[in-house]
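Lab notebook, bench 4. The sequencing result for the construct came back, and we need a structural model before the next group meeting so we can plan mutations. Quick request posted to the team channel:

Model the 3D structure of this chain.
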Amino acid sequence: MLISVYIPFVVTAVVAVLAPVMARRLPPRPAAWALACVALVTAAGWAGALALLAFTGVAQIPEIAEEGRWSAAVMQAEDPVYLAVAAGSALVLAAGVVSLAVAAVRQARHLLWARRECARLPGDLELAVVDDDAPMAFALPGAPGRVVVSRGMLRCLGDVERDALFAHERAHLRGRHHLFQALWRLAAALNPMLRPLASAGGYVLERWADEEAARRVGDRKAVAHAVGRAALASTASRRPVLAVNGGSVPQRVRALLGPPPARRSLPFVAGGLLLAVCCASLVNAASDSDQMLDRAQSAHVATHTTMASAPAAEHHRPHADGRTR
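Done. Here's the predicted structure in token form:
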């Protein structure tokens, strides 16, 4: 367990380094799904490893061992985790859980705000044009979601570029990209090492919508022009939601001016193997911890049984005259 329990931390560090690089080289739609799987597995592995370290360390405290009815000596001999490591793991885990709760409340409020804004928008169509001179365009998730664009933005774009803009924002709604965003933000709240992954995920979602718009419009260059002009004209809205000017705009434009990204299977296979190693190591560590606890409990029972039988043997030991006590 001493080695396997730390493997999820190593996997998380590798993911944090490689995710931004791979997000820019892989097709955006499968990359988004891959990043979602990576976020779930590594966040769970992170929390599980911290919990195991905290438990195995705290379990060595004699008072706690006595309450739990296991042998502290056996725990110390089989898996000596320093109390400082256990305490640090417990604090980090507690901070992550609190951060996760705060982020969950924030995401819930954000979705409720988006639904209220959808209901307030004029008209019943998916596209809502607001009378505002400030250039802005974004997608609001809801039931159903709405594409919001201002008259100021429409004046900045030509007909084909408008179609590209609408297709981009509709792709956000069809793909339910707000759920991907929420997942990455919650995972990063629990595990701060996943913040680069969450940032890369935002870029991937914009690239996903770009490629979907290019496929529907049939002109990659027109989509690139629409993205560039919208980014130059836009002023940040008060609460941007899946806006066309999100992500790294120069890199998105450069990608659209080139050919569609080629499909690659090797990075996904390698990532799957990495996640499998993370899961296997955590399962192995949990199994070792369970077996260690069983042995510690058996040793505790044996010790107390021996102590209980000693007075009885002393009581029945015969005297010199043949009488028993």
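Residues 266-315 form the longest helix (50 residues).
Will bring this to the meeting.
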